[in-house]
Amino acid sequence: MSRPGPITSLPVRVALLLSVAIVVLVGPAIFFIQDRLKASLVAISAAQMSSAHQAWINDMRLVVSDREASIARFARAISDLPDGPEPATVARFDALMAADAKGTWRNQRDRFDPSRDSGVWIPPSGRLDATMKTFYLDAAEVTRHFGAGARSSFFGNTWLLTSAQGEVEFDPNDPEFIYNAADDFPYADTPWMTATMPAQNPNGAVAWTPTTYDPLVGEWMLSVVAPFSRGGKWAGSVGQDVLLHDFLDHYRQALPSLDGDFLVYAADGTLIMSNRHQADIISGKGALTVKQLTDPLSCAAVATATVLLKKSSGAAATGDDAAGNLVLAARLPGPEWTMVTAVPKERIVGLVRRPFLMLFA
Q1: pLDDT tens digits for range 125-168
Q2: CB burial readout 137-149, b (16+ within 10 A) else e
């Protein structure tokens, strides 16, 4: 039997030569096209990210505006409550509330449904007479109705703090709050109260607290607050809280592809929240500022955002920092926060290259 000879037919040789030519000539052309496309695709990805960020900012502006208007309505409702003792209401207060051994008044457990009722907490230092008993029970009813209708995706409990050092709280998610509140916690010295006091807030405007730690619930939070009055005089604060981790979760759900640095800071530079620096904010007890940041991405993002927002007069703006990282910036009226997202350039390029790498792998 004869052995097969070498492949010498012309069609086969031509096919082989064409295959080599395709590899040698067309292969680089494909990668050349990829390089030419890269800049355009990066620009498209950046524009899509900017559009998504703008949509989220618009949503946040609506949320903030709604919360401010809502808490102002709550303050007016509390301010409009009748002033003076009502014997029937006083009797109902005495039936529903009880003082413990230290003299702190709270709802009696067997007569309190936290999923339905607003709780009352009055420490021994709090003023409590027939007029205040009437006020607390009336305020609890208003707070219950308001709180049930004012909950949102990340704004939670509704509360009222009086200058007489007492609290009404509606928060079905934490039914133990009324019982965990310490007998001597100095709420009068916290931003929840000081932000509405006439000395700090002479116009009686809605205000936002700085990042604040509530030891009763063990959470860092922000609160939108407003003053209420009794007899024409300042009598305390009403407010709603947003937990920081809920705010960040809302951001991540809205913009899942923006795997960068998210910063929110106040007008004085105090960091309110950040997906990369939250631990530092907490360890610094809410006093960390953007000037104290040291990582290159955050520092460049803040500097770039300052320039962008100055040029845009505070409107949402997009640009690149010196390293080519995408910076998305906006100012949020009301609390006057600056909101910045910095997306590393390699993150955008990686998103663009991924389909090509899968094609040529």
Answers
A1: 999 999 999 999 999 999 999 988 777 666 778 999 999 999 99
A2: bbbbebbbebbee
